[in-house]
UniProtKB/TrEMBL annotation:
Record domain NAD-dependent epimerase/dehydratase: where: 101-214
Name listed for the protein in its UniProt record: Epimerase
Origin species: Thalassospira alkalitolerans
Keyword NAD attributed: yes
Top-level taxon: Bacteria
Keywords noted in UniProt: NAD
A Pfam family assignment: Epimerase
InterPro entries in the record: Epimerase_deHydtase, NAD(P)-bd_dom_sf
Keyword NAD appears in the UniProt entry: yes
Alphabetized SUPFAM superfamilies for the sequence: NAD(P)-binding Rossmann-fold domains (SSF51735)
Amino acid sequence: MMTEKLFCFGLGFSARLVADRLRDEGWKIAGTTRSTDKADALRAQGIEPYIFSDDTPVSDIQTALDGVTHILVSAPPGGNGDPVLAHHAHDLAALPDGTWIGYLSTTGVYGDRDGAVVTEDDDLLPSGKRGRRRVAAEKAWFDLGRRHGLCVQSFRLAGIYGPGRNALETVRSGRARRVVKAGQVFSRIHVNDIAQTVLASIKRPDAGAAYNVCDDDAAPPQDVIAYASGLLGMDPPPEEDFATADLSPMAASFYEDNKRVANDRIKAELGVKLRFTDYKSGLLTLHDEIMAKINGTKAKIR
């Protein structure tokens, strides 16, 4: 029986967790990183590494893709489009028919909906430059799949959080702010639920499918910071009016879009049962894990 092999273009926060779980199931894992130091670390962890960046293609792509049964793409598009397709579209087109390709996109493809609910059937109306690049990249991946018989799926990820990357860490570091924009809500997703959704898609492949990957509770960002502060026994930072808050252009851009993202499709079609249905359950578990590490005990199972 052939061993399945996953190749990741980009082994970031979300893709790495998917790779680790499949490696634990006996899959071969290969993937890209930007530096030789990180490549050495990946090799030591049982992952076959390759160097890749926007301006550096994989030097031995034929070896890299040899025996690959699944591809996961987390490299973001840049000013020149999707870097993976720019360098390796021809190589990917030569993969066997039906090869599974997962593209990690964002809910930013929907743009601003003034707080309304969006589903995967809604038009893609991105607000800013990053969103427009994502829409173009999604289209290019789906086009590649249709033309060459590849099983491409897109995962539109909401705001990602998880161990080491969450509101608790922001509050503890003193960097937290409670910027209030009336009526503003964001959807979020715990990295563990991203991984289980991608793994569910691998088991139930559907060429051309797009999936919103988010929890059940779109919420104002200031509420998340207040809850995290409460868990830590700290006073929350003061509220700041968005209209007068001193924000960098990047920080301000996150407030351009206001929408509630529906996640019914991952539940109905992939059988996903979210472990963390809202930010409170996710942060509470992360808090338990932080305190267990500090105290040298085991985290509670919730």
